[in-house]
Amino acid sequence: MRPIQSQGVKQLLFDAKEYAGKYNHRFVHTEYLLLGLLKHTNSATKILRENGFDCRQLSETCKKQCSKGHHDPEENLKLTPRAQHVMALAGEQMLDLGHKDLDSRHIMLGLIMEEEGLGGIVLREAGLTPEILRNIILEEDRKLLVSDVIDTPLQKTSMISRKSTSSMWKMWSRT
Predict the structure, then answer these.
(1) pTM above 0.85, yes or no
(2) Which pLDDT tens digit goes with each residue over 143-161?
(3) What is the CATH number of the domain that holds 59?
């Protein structure tokens, strides 16, 4: 079953397809996933900026390494097997992190973890590793959890806990 994609991921995939077409390719390669990711502000670009990475520079570095294909632009471009692997890794990371929706942070993790794709190579050469990125995401999650607890009145907290427990029970009882 495919994970629920955030609106940002849908936009990222749309942009990646546009980049593939712009470079005259029939398929969406990992570099186009990265360019799609870097095109707009999203949770991944927020992480990059907050940790000293220049998204514009990463985009330019990636574009310089993109080669032109020899195909006329087509509609409904498909992902290459390597880009599909990135998406599968992103889905695994989403589940491992306990998230419900696939977002751009998971795609960035998938890119970095896919060892041969140009998108991941650009990110790794800039100094980003899967371990660093996972730790950043986990720290963000921890901060969100702490701020939710601090900002939530006691009565609402107990309601949320009951709902969460009930939801988790339903989820586990289905398996």
Answers:
(1) no
(2) 887 665 554 444 444 444 4
(3) 1.10.1780.10
